[in-house]
Amino acid sequence: MGGIRVIVHPGRARTAGVMVAVAAALSMTVTGCSSDDSADTGGDGGPRAKPAAPTPSPTRSYPLSTAPATIPSVRQHDAARGPGWKPGPAAGIVVAKGSEALADEARLLAGELKIAYRGAVAAGPGDVELVLAPSQTGGAESYTVRTGGGKVRISGPDQSGVFYGTRTLKQAVRSGGVMPEGLVQDRPDRPQRGLMVDIARKSFTADWIEDRLREMADLKLNQLGLHFSDDQGFRIESDTHPEIVSQEHLTKDQVRKILALASSLHIQVVPEIDSPGHLGAVLAAYPQLQLRDVGGRTVRGAIDIGNPESARLVDELLREYADLFGGRFWHLGGDEYQALVRENPETSFPQLAALAREQYGPEGRVQDLATDWVNDRAAVVRPLGLRPKAWNDGFFRGGSVSVDKDVEVAYWTGKEIGARPPEEYLAEGRKLLNLNDEYMYYVLGEPNDFTYPTGKRIYEQWTPFVLRGTEPVPEKYSKQIVGGQFAVWCDLAQAQTQAQVASGIRMPLRATAQKLWVPGAPTASWADFQNLANRLG
Protein backbone atom coordinates (compact mmCIF):
# COMPACT_ATOMS: atom_id res chain seq x y z
CA MET A 1 0.00 0.00 0.00
CA GLY A 2 1.75 3.17 -1.11
CA GLY A 3 1.81 6.59 0.40
CA ILE A 4 1.81 5.79 4.13
CA ARG A 5 4.88 5.17 6.25
CA VAL A 6 5.31 5.13 10.00
CA ILE A 7 8.75 6.02 11.32
CA VAL A 8 9.68 5.39 14.93
CA HIS A 9 12.34 7.91 15.90
CA PRO A 10 14.39 8.08 19.12
CA GLY A 11 12.38 9.90 21.74
CA ARG A 12 9.06 9.32 19.90
CA ALA A 13 8.65 5.55 20.00
CA ARG A 14 5.42 4.21 21.48
CA THR A 15 4.56 1.09 23.34
CA ALA A 16 3.82 -1.95 21.23
CA GLY A 17 0.13 -1.96 22.14
CA VAL A 18 -0.42 1.66 21.09
CA MET A 19 1.46 1.15 17.84
CA VAL A 20 -0.59 -1.91 16.94
CA ALA A 21 -3.81 0.04 17.53
CA VAL A 22 -2.57 2.97 15.43
CA ALA A 23 -1.37 0.64 12.71
CA ALA A 24 -4.72 -1.15 12.61
CA ALA A 25 -6.56 2.14 12.36
CA LEU A 26 -4.31 3.25 9.51
CA SER A 27 -4.92 -0.06 7.76
CA MET A 28 -8.67 0.39 7.93
CA THR A 29 -8.37 3.94 6.63
CA VAL A 30 -6.29 2.88 3.65
CA THR A 31 -8.36 -0.14 2.64
CA GLY A 32 -11.60 1.85 2.94
CA CYS A 33 -10.55 4.67 0.55
CA SER A 34 -10.02 4.87 -3.19
CA SER A 35 -6.74 6.07 -4.58
CA ASP A 36 -8.00 9.58 -5.57
CA ASP A 37 -9.55 10.66 -2.23
CA SER A 38 -12.89 11.46 -4.03
CA ALA A 39 -14.88 8.26 -3.61
CA ASP A 40 -18.25 10.04 -3.24
CA THR A 41 -17.94 12.58 -6.07
CA GLY A 42 -17.61 12.49 -9.81
CA GLY A 43 -14.76 14.06 -11.73
CA ASP A 44 -16.72 17.38 -11.87
CA GLY A 45 -17.33 17.37 -8.14
CA GLY A 46 -20.88 16.07 -8.41
CA PRO A 47 -22.18 13.00 -6.63
CA ARG A 48 -21.62 9.58 -8.05
CA ALA A 49 -22.49 6.06 -7.04
CA LYS A 50 -20.35 4.29 -4.51
CA PRO A 51 -18.46 1.31 -5.90
CA ALA A 52 -19.77 -2.12 -5.06
CA ALA A 53 -18.17 -3.97 -2.18
CA PRO A 54 -15.08 -5.88 -3.34
CA THR A 55 -15.45 -9.56 -4.06
CA PRO A 56 -13.80 -11.65 -1.31
CA SER A 57 -10.41 -13.02 -2.29
CA PRO A 58 -7.57 -14.89 -0.59
CA THR A 59 -5.41 -11.73 -0.58
CA ARG A 60 -4.61 -10.68 2.99
CA SER A 61 -4.52 -7.07 4.18
CA TYR A 62 -1.84 -6.30 6.75
CA PRO A 63 -1.66 -3.38 9.17
CA LEU A 64 1.47 -1.28 9.20
CA SER A 65 4.20 -3.06 11.08
CA THR A 66 5.57 -1.94 14.43
CA ALA A 67 9.20 -1.79 15.53
CA PRO A 68 10.70 -5.07 16.72
CA ALA A 69 10.62 -5.48 20.50
CA THR A 70 14.27 -5.68 21.56
CA ILE A 71 16.69 -4.70 24.34
CA PRO A 72 18.17 -2.28 23.60
CA SER A 73 15.40 -0.86 21.44
CA VAL A 74 16.16 -0.02 17.82
CA ARG A 75 16.69 3.63 17.00
CA GLN A 76 14.65 3.76 13.80
CA HIS A 77 12.07 1.53 12.15
CA ASP A 78 10.36 2.38 8.86
CA ALA A 79 7.06 0.54 8.90
CA ALA A 80 5.59 -1.41 5.99
CA ARG A 81 2.68 -3.73 5.25
CA GLY A 82 3.30 -7.42 5.13
CA PRO A 83 3.56 -10.58 7.19
CA GLY A 84 7.16 -10.04 8.23
CA TRP A 85 9.48 -13.01 8.53
CA LYS A 86 9.62 -15.97 10.85
CA PRO A 87 11.70 -19.11 10.78
CA GLY A 88 10.15 -22.07 9.05
CA PRO A 89 11.13 -25.44 7.59
CA ALA A 90 12.21 -23.90 4.27
CA ALA A 91 14.09 -20.96 5.80
CA GLY A 92 17.86 -20.71 5.93
CA ILE A 93 20.76 -18.35 6.61
CA VAL A 94 23.06 -17.38 3.73
CA VAL A 95 25.96 -14.99 3.28
CA ALA A 96 26.26 -12.80 0.22
CA LYS A 97 29.06 -13.28 -2.27
CA GLY A 98 32.12 -11.44 -0.95
CA SER A 99 30.78 -11.60 2.62
CA GLU A 100 32.19 -15.01 3.50
CA ALA A 101 33.81 -13.48 6.61
CA LEU A 102 30.30 -13.54 8.14
CA ALA A 103 30.13 -17.34 8.13
CA ASP A 104 30.54 -17.59 11.92
CA GLU A 105 27.78 -15.05 12.57
CA ALA A 106 25.55 -16.91 10.10
CA ARG A 107 26.17 -20.31 11.71
CA LEU A 108 25.46 -18.90 15.18
CA LEU A 109 22.17 -17.35 14.06
CA ALA A 110 21.13 -20.51 12.22
CA GLY A 111 21.68 -22.54 15.37
CA GLU A 112 19.76 -20.07 17.52
CA LEU A 113 16.78 -20.00 15.14
CA LYS A 114 17.00 -23.74 14.45
CA ILE A 115 17.14 -23.33 10.68
CA ALA A 116 19.72 -24.31 8.06
CA TYR A 117 22.95 -22.53 7.25
CA ARG A 118 23.31 -22.62 3.46
CA GLY A 119 26.68 -20.89 3.02
CA ALA A 120 27.64 -18.33 0.36
CA VAL A 121 24.72 -18.83 -2.03
CA ALA A 122 21.97 -16.63 -3.41
CA ALA A 123 19.13 -15.98 -0.99
CA GLY A 124 16.00 -17.95 -1.75
CA PRO A 125 12.40 -17.75 -0.51
CA GLY A 126 12.27 -17.47 3.27
CA ASP A 127 16.01 -16.90 3.69
CA VAL A 128 18.01 -14.46 5.82
CA GLU A 129 20.97 -12.95 3.97
CA LEU A 130 23.99 -11.42 5.75
CA VAL A 131 25.89 -8.80 3.79
CA LEU A 132 29.10 -6.86 4.39
CA ALA A 133 28.63 -3.41 2.87
CA PRO A 134 31.78 -1.35 3.53
CA SER A 135 30.32 1.74 1.86
CA GLN A 136 27.26 1.73 4.12
CA THR A 137 27.29 4.75 6.41
CA GLY A 138 26.77 4.86 10.16
CA GLY A 139 29.96 3.45 11.67
CA ALA A 140 31.35 -0.02 12.20
CA GLU A 141 28.67 -1.04 14.73
CA SER A 142 25.74 0.21 12.66
CA TYR A 143 23.47 -2.07 10.69
CA THR A 144 20.36 -2.25 8.54
CA VAL A 145 17.70 -4.96 8.55
CA ARG A 146 15.34 -4.98 5.55
CA THR A 147 12.37 -7.32 5.84
CA GLY A 148 10.01 -7.89 2.93
CA GLY A 149 8.96 -10.37 0.30
CA GLY A 150 9.37 -13.19 2.78
CA LYS A 151 13.08 -12.49 3.19
CA VAL A 152 15.42 -10.63 5.54
CA ARG A 153 18.60 -8.82 4.52
CA ILE A 154 21.00 -7.76 7.30
CA SER A 155 23.83 -5.48 6.19
CA GLY A 156 26.50 -3.34 7.79
CA PRO A 157 29.90 -1.83 7.09
CA ASP A 158 31.66 -4.19 9.49
CA GLN A 159 31.15 -7.66 10.95
CA SER A 160 30.23 -6.19 14.34
CA GLY A 161 27.32 -4.23 12.90
CA VAL A 162 25.97 -7.23 11.00
CA PHE A 163 26.28 -9.27 14.20
CA TYR A 164 24.16 -6.72 16.08
CA GLY A 165 21.60 -6.98 13.29
CA THR A 166 21.40 -10.72 13.94
CA ARG A 167 20.77 -9.98 17.63
CA THR A 168 17.85 -7.77 16.65
CA LEU A 169 16.41 -10.51 14.45
CA LYS A 170 16.85 -13.13 17.16
CA GLN A 171 15.16 -10.96 19.80
CA ALA A 172 12.32 -9.94 17.49
CA VAL A 173 11.48 -13.59 16.81
CA ARG A 174 11.73 -14.43 20.50
CA SER A 175 9.61 -11.50 21.70
CA GLY A 176 6.93 -11.51 18.99
CA GLY A 177 7.38 -14.61 16.88
CA VAL A 178 8.22 -12.61 13.78
CA MET A 179 10.63 -10.01 12.40
CA PRO A 180 8.30 -7.15 11.44
CA GLU A 181 8.03 -6.00 7.84
CA GLY A 182 9.96 -2.85 7.02
CA LEU A 183 13.40 -1.33 7.53
CA VAL A 184 15.48 -1.06 10.71
CA GLN A 185 18.40 1.37 10.74
CA ASP A 186 20.33 1.21 13.99
CA ARG A 187 23.59 2.15 15.67
CA PRO A 188 24.88 2.69 19.23
CA ASP A 189 25.02 6.04 20.95
CA ARG A 190 28.30 5.22 22.79
CA PRO A 191 31.27 3.18 21.50
CA GLN A 192 32.13 1.47 24.83
CA ARG A 193 29.33 -0.46 26.53
CA GLY A 194 30.09 -3.08 29.08
CA LEU A 195 30.27 -5.06 32.27
CA MET A 196 33.21 -5.19 34.68
CA VAL A 197 33.63 -8.12 37.09
CA ASP A 198 35.96 -8.33 40.09
CA ILE A 199 37.17 -11.92 39.78
CA ALA A 200 40.07 -11.26 42.18
CA ARG A 201 38.19 -11.03 45.47
CA LYS A 202 35.74 -13.77 44.42
CA SER A 203 36.66 -16.66 42.17
CA PHE A 204 34.17 -16.97 39.31
CA THR A 205 34.19 -20.05 37.11
CA ALA A 206 35.00 -19.94 33.42
CA ASP A 207 31.48 -21.17 32.66
CA TRP A 208 29.95 -18.29 34.60
CA ILE A 209 32.07 -15.75 32.70
CA GLU A 210 31.15 -17.35 29.37
CA ASP A 211 27.46 -17.18 30.29
CA ARG A 212 27.85 -13.44 30.94
CA LEU A 213 29.51 -12.99 27.55
CA ARG A 214 26.54 -14.60 25.80
CA GLU A 215 24.15 -12.46 27.82
CA MET A 216 26.13 -9.33 26.97
CA ALA A 217 26.21 -10.15 23.26
CA ASP A 218 22.42 -10.26 22.98
CA LEU A 219 22.33 -6.85 24.70
CA LYS A 220 24.85 -5.45 22.19
CA LEU A 221 27.42 -4.81 24.95
CA ASN A 222 31.00 -4.87 23.69
CA GLN A 223 33.39 -4.76 26.70
CA LEU A 224 34.04 -7.16 29.57
CA GLY A 225 36.43 -5.86 32.19
CA LEU A 226 38.24 -8.49 34.29
CA HIS A 227 39.80 -7.18 37.50
CA PHE A 228 41.85 -10.30 38.28
CA SER A 229 44.42 -9.08 40.83
CA ASP A 230 43.75 -7.56 44.24
CA ASP A 231 44.63 -7.98 47.90
CA GLN A 232 42.45 -11.08 48.24
CA GLY A 233 43.55 -13.01 45.17
CA PHE A 234 45.42 -13.30 41.89
CA ARG A 235 43.15 -15.41 39.70
CA ILE A 236 44.91 -16.28 36.43
CA GLU A 237 47.69 -18.81 35.94
CA SER A 238 51.16 -17.26 35.59
CA ASP A 239 54.24 -18.65 33.87
CA THR A 240 56.61 -15.92 35.02
CA HIS A 241 55.45 -15.78 38.66
CA PRO A 242 53.46 -18.91 39.59
CA GLU A 243 54.13 -18.18 43.26
CA ILE A 244 51.59 -15.31 43.29
CA VAL A 245 48.62 -17.27 41.89
CA SER A 246 45.71 -18.10 44.20
CA GLN A 247 44.62 -21.69 44.64
CA GLU A 248 41.29 -20.97 42.92
CA HIS A 249 42.14 -19.49 39.54
CA LEU A 250 41.57 -19.66 35.82
CA THR A 251 44.09 -21.53 33.70
CA LYS A 252 45.48 -19.81 30.65
CA ASP A 253 43.67 -22.33 28.47
CA GLN A 254 40.41 -21.34 30.12
CA VAL A 255 41.23 -17.68 29.51
CA ARG A 256 42.00 -18.41 25.86
CA LYS A 257 38.63 -20.09 25.51
CA ILE A 258 36.94 -17.09 27.13
CA LEU A 259 38.79 -14.76 24.76
CA ALA A 260 37.84 -16.83 21.72
CA LEU A 261 34.18 -16.75 22.71
CA ALA A 262 34.34 -13.00 23.38
CA SER A 263 35.92 -12.38 19.98
CA SER A 264 33.24 -14.41 18.23
CA LEU A 265 30.62 -12.27 20.00
CA HIS A 266 32.41 -9.00 19.15
CA ILE A 267 33.26 -8.30 22.80
CA GLN A 268 36.62 -6.91 23.90
CA VAL A 269 38.02 -8.24 27.16
CA VAL A 270 39.81 -5.52 29.15
CA PRO A 271 42.17 -6.99 31.79
CA GLU A 272 43.27 -5.14 34.92
CA ILE A 273 46.23 -5.65 37.24
CA ASP A 274 45.64 -2.83 39.71
CA SER A 275 48.77 -1.05 40.93
CA PRO A 276 50.49 0.50 42.86
CA GLY A 277 47.69 -0.28 45.37
CA HIS A 278 45.56 -3.41 45.61
CA LEU A 279 48.59 -5.69 45.16
CA GLY A 280 48.24 -7.68 48.38
CA ALA A 281 48.08 -11.09 46.69
CA VAL A 282 51.28 -10.37 44.77
CA LEU A 283 53.06 -8.91 47.79
CA ALA A 284 52.29 -11.97 49.90
CA ALA A 285 55.05 -13.68 47.91
CA TYR A 286 57.28 -10.57 47.92
CA PRO A 287 57.12 -9.06 51.41
CA GLN A 288 60.37 -7.17 50.79
CA LEU A 289 58.50 -4.99 48.28
CA GLN A 290 55.72 -4.07 50.72
CA LEU A 291 55.52 -0.35 51.48
CA ARG A 292 56.34 0.52 55.10
CA ASP A 293 55.66 3.77 56.90
CA VAL A 294 57.97 5.76 59.16
CA GLY A 295 57.18 3.40 62.05
CA GLY A 296 58.06 0.28 60.02
CA ARG A 297 54.45 -0.80 59.69
CA THR A 298 53.35 -2.39 56.43
CA VAL A 299 50.65 -0.71 54.34
CA ARG A 300 48.04 -3.17 53.08
CA GLY A 301 48.12 -3.75 49.34
CA ALA A 302 50.65 -0.97 48.65
CA ILE A 303 53.88 -1.73 46.83
CA ASP A 304 56.99 0.34 47.51
CA ILE A 305 57.08 2.58 44.43
CA GLY A 306 60.52 3.83 45.46
CA ASN A 307 62.05 0.38 44.98
CA PRO A 308 63.10 -0.36 41.35
CA GLU A 309 62.37 -4.05 41.94
CA SER A 310 58.69 -3.17 42.37
CA ALA A 311 58.43 -1.80 38.86
CA ARG A 312 60.38 -4.75 37.45
CA LEU A 313 57.97 -7.26 39.00
CA VAL A 314 54.78 -5.50 37.89
CA ASP A 315 56.11 -4.88 34.37
CA GLU A 316 56.92 -8.58 33.96
CA LEU A 317 53.30 -9.35 34.80
CA LEU A 318 51.99 -6.67 32.45
CA ARG A 319 53.97 -8.08 29.55
CA GLU A 320 52.98 -11.66 30.30
CA TYR A 321 49.26 -10.95 30.40
CA ALA A 322 49.29 -8.45 27.57
CA ASP A 323 50.61 -11.31 25.45
CA LEU A 324 47.79 -13.54 26.70
CA PHE A 325 44.94 -11.08 26.30
CA GLY A 326 45.95 -8.97 23.31
CA GLY A 327 43.03 -6.73 22.42
CA ARG A 328 42.82 -2.96 22.38
CA PHE A 329 42.77 -1.80 26.02
CA TRP A 330 44.59 -2.35 29.30
CA HIS A 331 43.37 -1.14 32.70
CA LEU A 332 46.26 0.02 34.90
CA GLY A 333 44.24 0.62 38.07
CA GLY A 334 46.03 3.46 39.83
CA ASP A 335 43.42 3.96 42.57
CA GLU A 336 43.49 3.99 46.36
CA TYR A 337 47.25 3.90 46.90
CA GLN A 338 47.18 3.83 50.69
CA ALA A 339 50.28 5.99 51.12
CA LEU A 340 48.22 8.89 49.83
CA VAL A 341 45.36 8.55 52.30
CA ARG A 342 47.58 9.59 55.20
CA GLU A 343 47.13 13.13 56.49
CA ASN A 344 50.69 13.97 55.51
CA PRO A 345 52.21 11.36 53.15
CA GLU A 346 55.58 13.09 53.20
CA THR A 347 55.81 12.73 56.98
CA SER A 348 54.47 9.18 57.02
CA PHE A 349 56.80 8.01 54.24
CA PRO A 350 60.01 10.07 54.46
CA GLN A 351 61.86 7.70 52.10
CA LEU A 352 59.32 8.39 49.33
CA ALA A 353 59.31 12.10 50.12
CA ALA A 354 63.10 12.26 49.73
CA LEU A 355 62.93 10.43 46.40
CA ALA A 356 60.20 12.79 45.16
CA ARG A 357 62.30 15.86 45.98
CA GLU A 358 65.29 14.25 44.28
CA GLN A 359 63.35 13.56 41.08
CA TYR A 360 61.04 16.58 40.88
CA GLY A 361 62.75 19.31 42.89
CA PRO A 362 61.93 20.91 46.23
CA GLU A 363 58.17 20.84 45.52
CA GLY A 364 58.10 17.16 44.66
CA ARG A 365 55.60 15.06 46.59
CA VAL A 366 54.66 11.42 47.06
CA GLN A 367 51.69 11.89 44.74
CA ASP A 368 54.13 12.72 41.93
CA LEU A 369 55.80 9.34 42.36
CA ALA A 370 52.38 7.64 42.26
CA THR A 371 51.41 9.55 39.13
CA ASP A 372 54.67 8.70 37.43
CA TRP A 373 54.10 5.07 38.35
CA VAL A 374 50.90 5.11 36.29
CA ASN A 375 52.69 6.82 33.40
CA ASP A 376 55.53 4.30 33.49
CA ARG A 377 53.08 1.39 33.37
CA ALA A 378 51.26 3.05 30.48
CA ALA A 379 54.61 3.22 28.71
CA VAL A 380 54.90 -0.56 29.07
CA VAL A 381 51.53 -1.47 27.54
CA ARG A 382 51.38 1.26 24.90
CA PRO A 383 54.07 -0.27 22.61
CA LEU A 384 52.17 -3.56 22.84
CA GLY A 385 49.26 -1.94 21.00
CA LEU A 386 47.13 -1.38 24.11
CA ARG A 387 45.34 1.83 25.05
CA PRO A 388 45.68 2.47 28.81
CA LYS A 389 42.87 3.22 31.26
CA ALA A 390 43.06 4.15 34.95
CA TRP A 391 40.65 4.92 37.78
CA ASN A 392 39.86 8.61 38.22
CA ASP A 393 41.17 8.91 41.78
CA GLY A 394 44.66 8.18 40.48
CA PHE A 395 44.64 11.48 38.54
CA PHE A 396 45.80 13.99 41.14
CA ARG A 397 45.78 17.74 40.68
CA GLY A 398 48.42 20.22 41.77
CA GLY A 399 51.53 18.07 41.50
CA SER A 400 54.67 18.29 39.42
CA VAL A 401 53.51 15.37 37.27
CA SER A 402 50.22 14.73 35.42
CA VAL A 403 48.89 11.48 34.08
CA ASP A 404 49.56 11.18 30.34
CA LYS A 405 46.74 12.64 28.26
CA ASP A 406 46.07 9.41 26.34
CA VAL A 407 45.21 7.48 29.52
CA GLU A 408 41.43 7.12 29.56
CA VAL A 409 39.70 8.05 32.82
CA ALA A 410 37.48 5.33 34.30
CA TYR A 411 35.36 7.66 36.43
CA TRP A 412 33.78 5.88 39.38
CA THR A 413 33.71 8.16 42.42
CA GLY A 414 33.83 11.62 43.92
CA LYS A 415 34.43 10.28 47.43
CA GLU A 416 38.08 9.23 47.34
CA ILE A 417 41.17 11.39 47.89
CA GLY A 418 42.25 12.70 44.51
CA ALA A 419 38.76 12.33 43.03
CA ARG A 420 38.22 15.58 41.21
CA PRO A 421 34.89 16.60 39.63
CA PRO A 422 34.45 15.05 36.19
CA GLU A 423 34.33 18.47 34.53
CA GLU A 424 37.98 19.00 35.44
CA TYR A 425 39.06 15.94 33.49
CA LEU A 426 36.79 16.82 30.59
CA ALA A 427 38.08 20.41 30.48
CA GLU A 428 41.58 18.96 30.12
CA GLY A 429 40.38 17.19 26.97
CA ARG A 430 40.43 13.71 28.52
CA LYS A 431 38.12 10.85 27.56
CA LEU A 432 35.94 9.43 30.34
CA LEU A 433 34.27 6.04 30.80
CA ASN A 434 31.26 6.22 33.13
CA LEU A 435 31.19 3.81 36.11
CA ASN A 436 29.35 6.16 38.47
CA ASP A 437 29.25 4.36 41.84
CA GLU A 438 25.91 6.00 42.63
CA TYR A 439 24.21 3.86 39.97
CA MET A 440 26.62 1.36 38.46
CA TYR A 441 28.34 -0.34 41.43
CA TYR A 442 27.06 -3.74 42.55
CA VAL A 443 29.15 -4.33 45.69
CA LEU A 444 28.69 -7.70 47.36
CA GLY A 445 27.52 -7.39 50.94
CA GLU A 446 26.70 -3.68 50.49
CA PRO A 447 29.57 -2.31 52.65
CA ASN A 448 30.44 1.38 53.07
CA ASP A 449 26.88 2.61 52.41
CA PHE A 450 26.66 0.88 49.03
CA THR A 451 23.27 -0.58 48.13
CA TYR A 452 22.57 -2.97 45.28
CA PRO A 453 21.65 -0.81 42.29
CA THR A 454 18.33 -1.33 40.59
CA GLY A 455 17.65 -1.46 36.89
CA LYS A 456 14.68 0.86 37.41
CA ARG A 457 16.85 3.65 38.77
CA ILE A 458 19.39 3.29 35.94
CA TYR A 459 16.59 3.14 33.37
CA GLU A 460 14.75 6.19 34.66
CA GLN A 461 17.52 8.44 36.01
CA TRP A 462 20.99 7.61 34.74
CA THR A 463 22.56 8.73 31.46
CA PRO A 464 26.18 8.66 30.25
CA PHE A 465 26.36 12.33 31.25
CA VAL A 466 25.69 11.51 34.94
CA LEU A 467 29.29 10.75 35.87
CA ARG A 468 29.29 11.65 39.56
CA GLY A 469 26.38 11.64 41.97
CA THR A 470 23.09 12.45 40.25
CA GLU A 471 23.94 15.60 38.29
CA PRO A 472 24.85 15.44 34.58
CA VAL A 473 27.81 17.24 33.05
CA PRO A 474 27.13 19.65 30.15
CA GLU A 475 26.31 17.98 26.84
CA LYS A 476 29.13 19.90 25.15
CA TYR A 477 31.43 17.15 26.48
CA SER A 478 29.47 14.38 24.78
CA LYS A 479 32.21 13.29 22.39
CA GLN A 480 34.63 12.78 25.31
CA ILE A 481 32.27 10.47 27.23
CA VAL A 482 33.07 7.20 25.49
CA GLY A 483 30.46 5.07 27.25
CA GLY A 484 29.90 3.21 30.48
CA GLN A 485 30.22 -0.06 32.35
CA PHE A 486 28.16 -1.74 35.04
CA ALA A 487 30.58 -3.00 37.70
CA VAL A 488 30.46 -6.00 40.06
CA TRP A 489 32.75 -5.67 43.08
CA CYS A 490 33.22 -8.54 45.52
CA ASP A 491 34.25 -6.78 48.73
CA LEU A 492 32.37 -9.36 50.83
CA ALA A 493 32.85 -12.29 48.51
CA GLN A 494 30.64 -14.78 50.34
CA ALA A 495 27.64 -12.46 50.54
CA GLN A 496 26.24 -13.89 47.30
CA THR A 497 26.72 -16.99 45.19
CA GLN A 498 27.58 -16.80 41.51
CA ALA A 499 23.95 -17.53 40.67
CA GLN A 500 22.76 -14.73 42.94
CA VAL A 501 25.15 -12.28 41.33
CA ALA A 502 23.91 -13.24 37.85
CA SER A 503 20.30 -12.80 38.98
CA GLY A 504 21.01 -9.54 40.81
CA ILE A 505 22.69 -7.82 37.86
CA ARG A 506 20.22 -9.08 35.25
CA MET A 507 17.92 -6.05 35.05
CA PRO A 508 20.58 -3.41 35.85
CA LEU A 509 22.64 -4.78 32.96
CA ARG A 510 19.67 -4.55 30.59
CA ALA A 511 18.92 -1.00 31.68
CA THR A 512 22.58 -0.08 31.17
CA ALA A 513 22.53 -1.54 27.66
CA GLN A 514 19.40 0.46 26.79
CA LYS A 515 20.82 3.77 28.04
CA LEU A 516 24.16 3.34 26.23
CA TRP A 517 22.57 2.39 22.89
CA VAL A 518 19.64 4.80 22.53
CA PRO A 519 20.02 8.45 23.57
CA GLY A 520 17.27 10.28 25.40
CA ALA A 521 14.67 9.21 27.91
CA PRO A 522 13.07 5.81 27.28
CA THR A 523 9.50 5.94 26.02
CA ALA A 524 8.42 2.57 27.38
CA SER A 525 7.59 2.38 31.08
CA TRP A 526 9.80 0.40 33.43
CA ALA A 527 7.02 -2.16 33.81
CA ASP A 528 6.85 -2.62 30.03
CA PHE A 529 10.65 -2.89 29.88
CA GLN A 530 10.59 -5.59 32.56
CA ASN A 531 7.88 -7.50 30.74
CA LEU A 532 9.89 -7.40 27.53
CA ALA A 533 13.00 -8.62 29.36
CA ASN A 534 10.99 -11.55 30.71
CA ARG A 535 9.71 -12.43 27.23
CA LEU A 536 13.25 -12.33 25.86
CA GLY A 537 14.55 -14.55 28.65
Concise summary:
By secondary structure, the protein is of the alpha/beta class. It has 15 helices and 19 strands.
Please, could you describe this protein's structure?
The protein contains 15 helices and 19 strands. About 30% of the residues lie in helices and about 20% in strands. Strands 1-2-8-6-7-5-3-4 form an eight-stranded mixed β-sheet, covered by helices on one side. The chain has an eight-stranded parallel barrel with strand order 9-10-11-14-15-16-17-19, surrounded by four helices. A two-stranded antiparallel ribbon has the order 12-13. The chain has helices at about 15-30, 105-115, 160-175, 205-220, 250-265, 280-285, 310-325, 345-350, 350-360, 365-380, 420-425, 455-460, 500-505, 505-515, 525-535; strands at about 5-10, 75-80, 90-95, 115-120, 130, 145-150, 150-155, 180-185, 190-200, 225-230, 270-275, 290, 300-305, 330-335, 385-390, 410, 430-435, 440-445, 480-490. It is an alpha/beta fold.
